[in-house]
Automatic annotation (TrEMBL):
<dbReference type="GO" id="GO:0005737">
    <property type="term" value="C:cytoplasm"/>
</dbReference>
<dbReference type="InterPro" id="IPR050275">
    <property type="entry name" value="PGM_Phosphatase"/>
</dbReference>
<dbReference type="Pfam" id="PF00300">
    <property type="entry name" value="His_Phos_1"/>
</dbReference>
<dbReference type="InterPro" id="IPR029033">
    <property type="entry name" value="His_PPase_superfam"/>
</dbReference>
<dbReference type="GO" id="GO:0016791">
    <property type="term" value="F:phosphatase activity"/>
</dbReference>
<protein>
    <submittedName>
        <fullName>Histidine phosphatase family protein</fullName>
    </submittedName>
</protein>
<dbReference type="InterPro" id="IPR013078">
    <property type="entry name" value="His_Pase_superF_clade-1"/>
</dbReference>
Length: 210
């Protein structure tokens, strides 16, 4: 994919589907192996991608393994790009949590209700945007114009909520596994911390049906 001179393009990749994702488990700071079939599809698709001079990744294994498939150098690990910490709900599915009163409160108001032994949305949002500012600072200082960010579904939704050209609520953004969403800025707008001017979405390549 070619971009015009005078622009900065940052592609957000969600990690490849994992075994725990197939169970629809809450997978925040714990980890899970990538699904082999999904990984193979992503490897095949990624061969056609351009080389990324800068790759940033969550420091969790599922993202680092996905990042290692992308063409380019080693990924810079950023803990700020982790998924939300689901605390004592980590690894559980809805059926196991549905009778937990704290879980029901959170489902009804996920933006203000706390997660037991985990993060609330405000903490998560602040952390993610701090990580984004690290990325932006590095690209500005090193005059980077193209980068990949490998992270999680919640992180991508948060970044799109704050950076996409049009404003949409958090849950209206889609972030499929192994999908790629490219945000494009004019150089000056990127330096000023503005929303991007163009957004390009790629179809997911690593998602399995069911």
């Amino acid at each position: 994919m070619l971009f015009m001179d005078g622009t900065v393009a940052v592609t957000l990749f969600r990690h490849v589907l994992t075994e725990e994702n197939k169970r629809h488990a809450y997978l925040g700071w714990t980890d899970s192996p990538l699904c082999p079939e999904a990984k193979e599809r992503f490897e095949t698709w990624s061969r056609a991608l351009p080389e990324y001079p800068f790759i940033f990744s969550s420091d969790l294994g599922r993202c680092l393994e996905t990042a290692s498939i992308l063409p380019g150098g080693n990924a810079l690990k950023l803990k700020e790009l982790r998924e939300m910490n689901f605390g004592r709900w980590e690894g559980s599915i809805y059926e196991e949590l549905k009778n937990d009163p704290a879980y029901q409160v959170w489902l009804n108001d996920p933006f203000t209700a706390p997660i037991p032994e985990g993060e609330n949305y405000g903490q998560f949002s602040e952390r993610v945007m701090h990580g984004w500012e690290k990325i932006r600072t590095i690209l500005i200082r090193q005059e980077g114009t193209r980068a990949a960010v490998v992270t999680h579904g919640g992180v991508i939704r948060q970044l799109l909520t704050r950076l996409a050209p049009e404003e949409r609520p958090f849950w209206e953004w889609k972030a499929p596994h192994a999908g790629a969403i490219t945000l494009i800025w004019e150089n000056n707008g990127f330096r000023r911390g503005e929303r991007c001017t163009l957004l390009l979405e790629e179809a997911s390549t690593g998602k399995l049906s069911g």
